[in-house]
Amino acid sequence: MSNQIQSLQVRGFFNGVVLIAMVAQIATDAGVARAEQPTAGATRHVDLGGEVCLELVYVPPGEFKMGSTPAEKAWATGIEGGATPGTERESYEGERPRPMRVKDGFWMGRTEVSVGQFKRFVEETSYVTDAEQPGATTHCFDPEWKITAKAPPHPWIPMEDKSWRDPNFGFPLRNCYPVVCVSWNDGKSFCKWLTARERAAGRLPEQLEYRLPTEAEWAYACRGGLEGTIFWWGDDLSNGEGRLNISAVDFLPGRNKIWPLANAPWSDGFAFVSPVDHYGERGRNGFGLADMCGGVWEIVLDHFDPQGGHEEVYSVDTNPRPVCRGGNYFDVPGNARCAVRLGLQGPNYSDSRDGFRICLGVPRDVE
Fold it and tell me: Which of 8, 72, 258, 261 is deepest in the core (most CB within 10 A)?
């Protein structure tokens, strides 16, 4: 009997040790998981070589509302918003805001991809953008554009000899400007290069990739944690001073006139594009992302649905038109809101008002 009791005691002790070890391992695993789970606003830097890096900011999963209210659309096409009334542009935002959920956290570029960062990609790959292909064009500002008392014609025209290397701004291009005159194809190619580069260096887990953000990710990230305001800082345009680059009280290069459209009633310092993150902390939203409204249109992964954006990545089989979001330096305040969205002419279309921002997240692909 005593031997049986002793045997039970030994087995009990052994089982207890195993149980304690299992609990300890679970706790350790949970601690590792918690340690690896980034917090909102966490940053990471990607070395692109040549003393060029790219900064990413973590955006946690969450819920938001995509689209705008009838009241917001009315403001956008009113006196202060300045958007042209009677067009269908505002209808692209959907009839009313729709609740959506971004189920996976992701990392997003602090800023749009800059000229210097894109240059590193081209240096390493000899990549030729869509605008640089034989016979191709990109849309740039027409220096012969005449400002008249009548509503001016559109000042952007297709040009064959322009590209991201020279967008025809009329002033020297610097590495700190957002890259423009790039297409949806070009943005995807940059992301594929960065994914391959980081994976080859052993710095990228298999379950993640660099890519363009989905429209839902971009719209959620743009609001910076707010649910349904006109801009990422709120509804009051006057609070946007010193935060964004849009049509404002700034002279056009070589002229003594400003854009002859509705303007923000202050100088933002630039008639054309501003350097990325030029406005510093004041120009960053609740997630720490810079230049989410104004600056340059940002091309996203989804194809355009004129009825409104989608929670899951959206694509079509024929005549795809990539979505661009956020407005640009030429836009009036009503066209540089969080909810604003347009469809580009096609995957190879480029313009000196269009750029892109990258995302690091779970794979989401659209061909």
Answer: 72
Task: Name the token pair of 365.
Answer: 């692909």
Q: Residue 51 — φ and ψ, nearest 5°?
A: 60, 30
Phi and psi based region of residue 193 (left: phi greater than 0; alpha: psi -120 to 50; beta: remaining): alpha
φ/ψ of 198, rounded to 5, equals -70, -35
Could you tell me the fold of the domain covering 42-361?
paralog of FGE (formylglycine-generating enzyme) (3.90.1580)
Residue 215 near residue 309, CB atoms below 8 Å: yes
Domain limits of the chain? 42-361
What pLDDT, on the 0 to 100 scale, is given for residue 136?
A: 98
pLDDT of residue 105: 96
> How deeply is 128 buried, as exposed, middle or buried, from its count of CB atoms within 10 A (0-12, 13-18, 19+)?
middle
Instruction: Centre a 10 Å sphere on the Cβ of residue 152 and count the other Cβ atoms it contains.
Output: 13
| pTM beyond cutoff 0.85 | yes
